[in-house]
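During the first year of the project, the team set up a workflow for recording each protein of interest as an amino acid sequence followed immediately by a discrete structure-token representation. This format lets reviewers and collaborators read both layers of information side by side without switching files. As required by the reporting guidelines, we include two representative entries from the current panel. The first entry is reproduced here exactly as it appears in our internal archive.
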Amino acid sequence: MPDGQEEAFVRRLLSEVVTPRGRLIVCGYGSPRSEQAPHPVRRLIRAYGFESEVELEREAPEGGGPIIELAVLRAT
């Protein structure tokens, strides 16, 4: 997703793709081996004015830092 278009894309998915009361799972992946943090989807979702039903961050199996973070949004 090109920078600056994420919020519009999430809003479009929630209004045009996800069924009413359905859920959208937004994920960000990283790689501790490559010293790349996951995309900060939880922070971004909150900045867009959404409240997540679930937020999650998980460590890589081999350790070294987070490998994924996600936010679950409910469509209206």
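The second entry, processed by the same pipeline in the following quarter, appears below.
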Amino acid sequence: MRGYDVSRKWKVAITTVALLACASAAFAYWTSTGSGTGDAATGSSGAITVVQTSSVAGLFPGGPAQTLSGNFNNPNAGQVFVGSITATISGVTGPNIDASNPCTAADYQLGGFPVTVNAQIPTGTGVGSWTGGTLTMLNSATNQNGCKGATVAIAYTVA
């Protein structure tokens, strides 16, 4: 019986030493100091397109102003802020325009520009909105037959 007790005491002692070794290993660590660097890049935005969705037809000399309105095509990955829109008449074409019957940008007048938008335009096609500009055909003292059936091209700029 005595041999049994000695063996048992050794087992208890060995187990105790093993547990203490594991416990001290669990609490052991190294300390250190250091530094590092990193960077991050921001994106950029591409051009946003102003789209006129209002139909303007039937202009005539001295007639009422017709409203211009529309939305935007934003190809960017995120929203783009639009403060305002300006417009200019970039050209006039038509079937009756010739040397005897001219029709130019001077026969028309844009009104209400710049149009204030002050909005974040979401990404996508046909998004956001704008309104407030107008187009009028002026009544000049000369023959304006060249303007019959003419198309007025308007160039929009975002600010």
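For the second entry, the following points were noted during internal review. The longest strand covers residues 80-93. Helices lie at 2-27. Both points are flagged for discussion at the upcoming steering committee meeting.
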